[in-house]
What does this fold into?
Amino acid sequence: MDPFTFGIVATGSLGGGLLLLAALDKGGFSINEDLLVIVVEVIKAGAILKFLSYISQLFI
It folds into this structure.
């Protein structure tokens, strides 16, 4: 998967997940915000590592 497509898919899925969490929060469900921040940071770090591995293959 090229980086452009990966970025579009990652942004769309993460944005959709955040919209779902916002809807659940307004619906009365309790959302642990600290855990949400940790999950978003882990996903972001994974995306950066995936992108760096792709870039490293271009220069090898």
Q: What stands out?
A: The helical segments are 3-26, 33-58. The two ends are 18 Å apart (CA to CA). The chain has a mean pLDDT of 80.
